[in-house]
Amino acid sequence: MAEEQGTVYLVGAGPGDPGLITRRAHDLLGEADVLVYDHLVHPDLLQVCRADCEKIYVGKMAGQYSVRQEKIQTILVEQIRAGHRVVVRLKGGDPLVYGRGGDEARHLREHGVAFEIVPGVTAAAAAAAYTGIPLTQRHTSSSVTFLTGHEDPVKGTGVIDWPRWGALETTLCIYMGMARLADIVDGLIEGGRDPQTPAAVVQWASTPLQRSCRAPLAELPGRVAEAGLGAPAVVIVGDVVTYGENLNWYEERPLFGRRVVVTRNRAQAGELRERLERLGAEVLEIPLIRVSPDHNESIWSEILEELGSYDWLVFASANGVKHFFDYLLKKHPDIRNLGAMRIAAVGKATARAVEAYRLTCELVPEKATAEGLADALIETGSLDSAKVLVVTGNRGGEKLISRLESEGFAIVDRLPVYKTELEKLDDAPAVGDFREKGADYIVFTSSSTVQSFAEQARSLKLGPSAKHPLACSIGPVTTEKLKGYGITVHVEPKQSNLDALVEAIRAHAAG
Fold first, then answer.
1. 7-121: which CATH topology?
2. How far apart are the first and last CA of the chain?
3. What span, in angstroms and rounded, lies between the C-alpha atoms of 314 and 321?
């Protein structure tokens, strides 16, 4: 019996914001054996794929080498015939709206390859929604038309009769029209469209790079040139554009237009990045450290033998929580092996990591530092001759343990479960971007990130036109480290946690 052939999925990646893809698209990315993707696909979507997924880039950019459409179609058939079960063709926007999805589907059908089409949010819909422009509006516009400004190199002439469309009272959404914007505007006006018709250009819609420009139709090309807008962008023409002047919610967010560098390790950067992006910031990830498991089998063996005898289990970081339970539950799946010990966490983020295992932290100090944790534990009056297990990494923990032993009279065992190492930056794309453009803020969430930044200063040296970022510190220990390297701290929250840090950056940006 012949083995069943795989399927090619023509999937819309949406306009840019990775949160706008459909649930079906997300599931298929997680199942993909092969991913064939475009230039406008957000990098975060590639991370949804399995580690063993083969990724094939076929992006097209004006003025640069591009993979020809015929070659892309051949690749899709070849991947199925190679025996792959799930081949995802990920396309910016919607596959069937100026996405050549119809050509690819027809080619697959002609070659007997099974396919499915998964729609996505098209660029015009996103450009309108993210600038508050209703594409249709009662009493203003009851229809909307999608057009392309891209010339057909085979025909050698314009694809669209612009004067014809200028004569119609409809909202126009023009894709790929930036290179010929002046000609398009002239054609619309020649056809009868009022030169004072409200019009807009929206670049990089739905992303932190979004920029928009509004002007009367006749003035639009000049205004766009002054603003420095270019492709990828959508042009919207019609009276509905006036609504966007009051409904432009996206570009009014408090950190919109601000560029923030996050230096946390990759595994932890997501939470901070999400919070900053929610406020409108453009986030550039430059992980200066990496965190990995570091388990000493001999130490673990001794700890596990006495696990039920400890009075306190103390976590000095969220990383410690993760790596402690990863190892413990692999060796002893029953969480009850912890016994009746009480749990303390250095701060709210660490406490949340503990609570993810359905456990409660009896002690979380207001001051989220090693000193604050030591003070809070000593103040409980429960440490005299108590057995305490402190979970740490390969850096730090000494001051906390020393105080618990000398001032609290506790019997303390240290359990290192992870190691923090400085990340070598080399020529990572994000580093080159930072050197060229700089940023408004750079965020340090640990002393280790500061040390790595200082030691790799040469790799991070800014270019002559780059913006020099202001340093943001999560708390006193990190601030002390920054000052030790001669770096001025402009933002430090009153409490050492991510919520307070993000709020402090928002407040500083507001002036």
1. Cobalt-precorrin-4 Transmethylase; domain 1 (3.40.1010)
2. 71
3. 9
| CB-side neighbour CA atoms (13 Å) of 432 | 4
Which two structure tokens, joined as six digits, stand for 224?
Answer: 């766009």
Instruction: Please identify, in words, the CATH class of the domain defined by 259-288+423-510.
Output: alpha beta
Just list the catalytic residues: 38, 60
- CA distance linking residue 233 with residue 492, whole number of Å: 38
CA 145 to CA 287: how far, in whole Å?
44
pLDDT single digits (tens) 84-106: 999 999 999 999 999 999 999 99
The low-confidence residues of the chain, meaning pLDDT below 50, are: 1-2, 153, 156
Residue 75: partners with Cβ closer than 8 Å, 6 or more residues away: 36, 56, 58
Any idea where the domains of the chain sit in the sequence? 7-121, 125-252, 259-288+423-510, 307-417
For 420-435, write each residue's pLDDT tens digit: 888 877 666 788 889 9
Among all chains, which residue has been given the structure tokens 């999560």? 474
Nearest to 141 by CA among 175, 173, 181, 101: 173
Q: What are the CA-CA distances from residue 248 to residues 45, 87, 175, 465 (Å)?
A: 26, 38, 21, 30
How many CB atoms neighbour CB 476 within 10 A? 14
Q: What architecture does CATH give domain 307-417?
A: 3-Layer(aba) Sandwich (3.40)
CATH number of 125-252: 3.30.950.10
Looking up tokens 């083969």, which residue turns up?
Answer: 54
Residue 477 identity: V
Q: What are 364-371's contacts with CB under 8 Å, separation 24+?
A: 366/495, 367/495, 367/496, 368/475, 368/495, 368/496, 368/497, 369/475, 369/476, 369/477, 369/496, 370/316, 370/346, 370/396, 370/397, 370/399, 370/400, 370/477, 371/399, 371/403
- Report cis status (omega within 30 of 0) of the bond before 232: yes
Instruction: Retrieve residue 433's tokens.
Output: 């971007």
Length of the chain: 511
Question: Would 125-252 and 307-417 be classified into the same CATH topology?
Answer: no
